[in-house]
Structure formats: structure tokens, C-alpha cells
Design goal:
Layout (H helix, E strand, L loop, with lengths): L9 H11 L3 E5 L5 H12 L5 E6 L5 E7 L2 E4 H6 L20 H5 L1
Parallel strand pairs: 1-2
Antiparallel strand pairs: 2-3, 3-4
């Protein structure tokens, strides 16, 4: 029996494209939990938001965190709700402005 393909959310795809433009930092968690390792790294390096911290938990697993002005968030949440983060607005493509046809003809 064929598996049904999972539908990809346009909003999440757009958020993923925006996060690709943000500075990224790759670290290993070591003995700490991934979120703790990310917080310690951000504190030690003095990283300014926005930034994406990719934490390698082991050889198979990585966790992605987004460092924003309001704190540390899971990258998947930020992909889906990128419009809630003011620091990401500068990375978003400009929205085309629709002008009424009457205004153009004048």
C-alpha cells in the first residue's frame, strides 16, 4: 500500500527560507541538554539576536533553536510563526503593493 505524502505548509516553507538567511551557529551539546548547551553558548559568545543555534545531540540527532529578543525558541515553531518575530521582518521578501487600476491610469 502506498504511503500518502505529507502536505507541506506554505507558511512553514516560507519561514524555513527566512531562517536560512539568519546567522547560524553549530555546536555539540556534550553533557548538557541541548537547550542548556544552546543557552550557555549564546551567553559565552555574546550572540545578538536573531540567530539560529544548531545543537548536535549525538551522531544522529540535532536540535535547532532560534535566538530572538524575547528568548530561545524551537526553530520549527519559528518557521510556522515567523510573522510574530519583529527581528525576522528584515529578512522577509518585500510584499508587492497592489495599486488600483484607476490610480495607475490617471
Amino acid at each position: 500500500m502506498a504511503r500518502k505524502r505529507k502536505r507541506k505548509s506554505r507558511r512553514r516553507q516560507e519561514g524555513r527560507k527566512i531562517l536560512e538567511l539568519v546567522p547560524q551557529f553549530n555546536i555539540e551539546s556534550g553533557e548538557d541538554k541541548p537547550v542548556t548547551a544552546a543557552r550557555k553558548y549564546i551567553q559565552a559568545q555574546g550572540i545578538c539576536p536573531p540567530a539560529l543555534v544548531i545543537v548536535k545531540r549525538n551522531e544522529h540527532t540535532t536540535d535547532r533553536f532560534f535566538w530572538a529578543e524575547k528568548g530561545l525558541f524551537g526553530a520549527q515553531y519559528v518557521e510556522e510563526n515567523h510573522f510574530l518575530f519583529p527581528s525576522l521582518r528584515e529578512f522577509q521578501p518585500p510584499v508587492p503593493v497592489k495599486t488600483p487600476a484607476a490610480a495607475v491610469a490617471v
